[in-house]
Amino acid sequence: MGEGLRVRNLIIVAMIEIVAHRGASGEAPENTLAAFRLGYAQADACELDIHLSKDGQVVVMHDANTKRTAGVDKPIAQQTLAELRELDAGKGEKIPLLSEVLALIPEGKRLFIEIKCGPEVIPALVAVLDEAKKKPEQTALIAFNLETLRQAKLKLPKLQAYWLVGSKADAKTGKPPEVEALLQKCKEAGVDGLDVDGKLPVDAGFVGKVHAAGLKLYTWTVNDPEVAKREAAAGVDGITTDKPLKLKEALAK
Questions:
Q1: How many domains does the chain have?
Q2: Which site from 38, 72, 228, 251 is most exposed, i.e. has the minimal number of CB atoms within 10 Å?
Q3: pTM of the entire predicted model
Q4: Is the four-CA dihedral 66, 68, 70, 71 of positive or negative sign?
């Protein structure tokens, strides 16, 4: 590789925020403190999912039910924190509180908080973030439900908020979501950008339209180095992955 190309690739890597999906979930049990510690060692940020327990605690887990990751077929909303703490989330790891993960964020890195439940979690989320006293740039909000995200952004206006969008074709048109329509909805909701499925055709044209609207663009969950390279070349702001170290190494080559 020529020196100029090597330097260019290193600049690209430095500009793109690599986000560890549910922590470094390719190497440690997802959404556990072990995964987040490893994720922060390997990536620029970590991403997690939150639900509200029966007793109003903001807990970290992707599914609404603890069956898949902890072996107990019961909704999180029907379990207290004490009950959830008795479960094994993988390799002896416990289901963490959001506050415990916030305490792990290193200086200069941040946490993407995906709201998996509804707006009922927002008051508790605000309280946890206030107590953590993190800088606004150290946390960001994401959600598939745009109305929930809008409400969270209203309560936490200093935080960046990105709308999660899948690649599923529109039921009426049979086509993937059109970027112009997505941007219009973002503007109406007052959020800061999009976080789209990496399966969408994210090219320079797509990225250019998002940036021209004054918004940011992230993609998920990209584990294929070739896809990551294409998206990086197109100019995305960040890429979420289960394998942050592998992607960083690939982008630097």
A1: 1
A2: 72
A3: 0.95
A4: positive
